[in-house]
């Protein structure tokens, strides 16, 4: 299933969405960035500022060359850094994997897909606009719905709850495993392994 692999045979750009700066570091909205930290630890190396507008780390994952990228912009403006970094490394949209928070999935559950809408996620909307296509991979990390009448925009800008934090390291690790499987074995294999819960 060669077409099932992101950027079949070439480099893959792994993007972890979040907002820059310590104030946002533990927010639900920053879960993509947290997963990238876990992947960086597996690769071994440090992120460096890149002229494309992201912090990047080059390495190997699942036997493939990958570029890890954390946009230095705020979430709603992620598109510029993502498309700029993809252009620099000559990675087509089919080789881009975006890891992000997802309100419509229970906390800790994972869903992987290729293409689709942005589901109200401004980071995805910005990336789709800048890449000029919806056809890039998404690894969606469930953060659940806000309690009561809390505005979803406020909810994603809050840190994980005490209860959620107990499982957070495990969930981030599992999400990093899902990204590795996607890169190494393709979308169908990763979905079959991780679409539980």
From TrEMBL:
The record marks 101 as: Stabilizes the basic form of H active site to accept a proton. Pfam families: Pept_tRNA_hydro. The record marks 19 as: Discriminates between blocked and unblocked aminoacyl-tRNA. TRNA binds at residues 24, 74, 76, 122. CDD domains: PTH. The active site is at residue 29. One of its GO terms (cellular component) is cytoplasm. The keyword Electron transport does not apply. Keywords: Cytoplasm, Hydrolase, RNA-binding, tRNA-binding. GO terms for biological process: protein quality control for misfolded or incompletely synthesized proteins; rescue of stalled ribosome. It is found in: Cytoplasm. GO terms for molecular function: peptidyl-tRNA hydrolase activity; tRNA binding. The keyword tRNA-binding applies. Its EC number is 3.1.1.29. It catalyses: an N-acyl-L-alpha-aminoacyl-tRNA + H2O = an N-acyl-L-amino acid + a tRNA + H(+). Catalyzes the release of premature peptidyl moieties from peptidyl-tRNA molecules trapped in stalled 50S ribosomal subunits, and thus maintains levels of free tRNAs and 50S ribosomes. Hydrolyzes ribosome-free peptidyl-tRNAs (with 1 or more amino acids incorporated), which drop off the ribosome during protein synthesis, or as a result of ribosome stalling. Monomer. Belongs to the PTH family. This is Peptidyl-tRNA hydrolase. It comes from Prauserella flavalba. The gene is pth.
């Amino acid at each position: 299933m060669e077409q099932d692999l992101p950027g079949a045979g070439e480099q893959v750009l792994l993007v972890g969405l979040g907002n820059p700066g310590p104030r946002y570091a533990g927010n639900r909205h920053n879960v993509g960035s947290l997963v990238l930290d876990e992947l960086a630890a597996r690769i071994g190396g440090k992120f460096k500022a890149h002229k494309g507008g992201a912090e990047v780390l080059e390495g190997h994952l699942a036997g493939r060359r990958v570029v890890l990228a954390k946009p230095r912009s705020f979430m709603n403006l992620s598109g510029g850094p993502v498309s700029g970094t993809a252009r620099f490394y000559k990675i087509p949209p089919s080789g881009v994997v975006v890891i992000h928070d997802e309100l419509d999935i229970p906390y800790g559950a994972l869903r992987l897909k290729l293409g689709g809408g942005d589901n109200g996620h401004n980071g995805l909307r910005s990336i789709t606009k800048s890449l000029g296509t919806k056809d890039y991979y998404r690894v969606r990390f469930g953060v659940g719905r806000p309690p009561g009448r809390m505005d979803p925009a406020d909810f994603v800008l809050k840190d994980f709850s005490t209860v959620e934090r107990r499982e957070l390291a495990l969930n981030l690790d599992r999400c990093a495993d899902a990204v590795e499987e996607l890169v190494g074995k393709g979308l169908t294999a990763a979905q079959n392994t991780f679409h539980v819960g």
